[in-house]
Amino acid sequence: MSAEPTATSEKTQAAAPARAARQRPVTRYWQAVGAIAWKDLRAEIRSRELINSMVLFTLMTVMVFSLALELDSDARQNVVAGVLWVTVVFAGMLGFSRSLAAEHDRGSLDALLLAPIDRSALFFGKMIGNLLFVLVISFVLMLLLTVMFNISLIEPLLVVMLLLGSVGFTTIGTLIASMSVHARARETLLPILLLPVSLPLLISAVRGSAAILNEMPSEDWLPWIQLLAVADVIFLAAAYSLFGFIVEE
Amino acid sequence: MIEIRKLTKTFGLNPVLRGLDLDVERGQFLALLGPNGSGKTTLLRILAALSRPTGGTVRIGGWDLPAEADFVRAQLGVVSHLPLLYDTLTAEENLLLFARLYDLPAEERRPRVDAVLERVGLKRRARDVVRTFSRGMQQRLAIARAILHDPAILLLDEPYTGLDQDAAALLDTLLREVAVGGRTVVMTTHDLRRGHALADRIAILSRGKIALDSPCADIDPDALPALYSDVTGAATTR
């Protein structure tokens, strides 16, 4: 005679994968993050949909700015930091919106949410994928601005500034894109929500970058770098704790 | 295996599930029927831990939802009317991605992927990108994804949507032979005859409650459309 299994015996029989997951949670967490980021990268290398539109947008924006602003060499030093960050921000928003919208529209976001992984691992996987695209754009942008504005942007400190700014902006951008992806007017909603929230980060990035390009002393750019680092930590912590609530019905 | 008690789900002011009770035993195949808006998909999304219940309790394999959702997810395979696949990745890349997300041991991933591709008849298309697949092939790959981690429970949300007759017949065979063997299955469908033919029990959902729950053996398939209309008030020709 076989009795109907109790809740405890059912748990014992069914919990093998979940138990294994608990034995090495950190490895499993980063394995999931890596798998999702790898998937985005692999898909993008094959389709080039996102990166092509971001690069094209970057190229057009730099050309418009370089033709529209007739600047002497002093003014150029001040303006180029703004051009750099405005372009990163708008190209980034193009990427965040499409990356999340594609997942949502074909239902694959549900497939990721069905996996027995921490919701924040899903977020960081998507965020790292987006960050890689933003960094590629930033690198292309540095080369383009160097050529079009005749100012060398290949500065180690500026690279640090770009890295910190991109991490913060991509974190909050991915978070807000995942909130707005269910809305009908998501393309409009994303910039309306993202720009005010990321304003402190963008002001720090522009002011710090301008100070570095103008070869000012460290007390002029160091506080901006510190502020960017603090903003990154706050945005990362917010994303870690909020993403689960955002994606669940 | 699945115990649902007084389950409610409300979207804004609109109640979709209204105190639903349901049990599904281990190894049982339950066909969940009901008109559009009756709450079938909402119920399946709650069982899949994609949606939080507003009230009531849901226990799957001894684990409570939503508190122990990660443990529940590890036991579930889900096939939806959408294939839930990445169309710019190959069939093999899709399955390897999910093998990593479901934490299959590294040395078992590739043999397991090869084995499930073989079982759904897609081994020869393993390295083709999914966007070149027909709808039927995508649905077979979706089944491969759902059974990749050998789940104890399969949730099928209208898996026949958009399939032509041949592809649907192939999916029937596949569900019987490959996916179902020994697993607990809950399938929502609008196709009354197919639901009756595949399942061992039928539940009809109407206005957020189970309006009829009966073993298939007790229901004459020819009388099912009339019974369905009586219970739900909806017209049907199937």
Write a structural description.
The complex is a heterodimer of chains A (249) and B (238). Chain A has helices at residues 7-14, 16-23, 25-47, 49-68, 73-105, 108-114, 119-149, 156-180, 186-213, 218-247. Chain A is globular, with a radius of gyration of 21 Å. In chain A, 86% of the residues lie in helices and 0% in strands. Chain A has 249 residues and is mostly helical. Chain B has 238 residues and is an alpha/beta fold. Chain B folds into 2 domains: 1-75 and 152-238, 3-Layer(aba) Sandwich (Rossmann fold), CATH 3.40.50.300; 83-148, no CATH class. Chain B is built from 8 helices and 10 strands. Chain B has helices spanning 40-47, 69-73, 91-101, 106-119, 135-147, 165-179, 192-198, 224-232, and strands at 2-11, 14-24, 29-33, 55-60, 63-65, 76-79, 153-157, 184-188, 201-206, 209-215. In chain B, strands 6-7-8-3-9-10 form a 6-stranded mixed β-sheet, sandwiched between helices. A 4-stranded antiparallel β-sheet of chain B has the order 2-1-4-5. In chain B, β7 (153-157), α6 (165-179) and β8 (184-188) form a beta-alpha-beta unit. The chains are: A mainly alpha (249), B alpha/beta (238). Chain A binds chain B through residues 4-11, 13-15, 17-18, 20-21, 28, 31-32, 34-36, 38-39, 42-43, 46-47, 106-108, 110-118, 248-249, and chain B through 1, 25-26, 45, 48-52, 59, 61-63, 66, 70-71, 73-76, 78, 80, 82-89, 93, 97-98, 100-103, 129, 145, 149, 152.
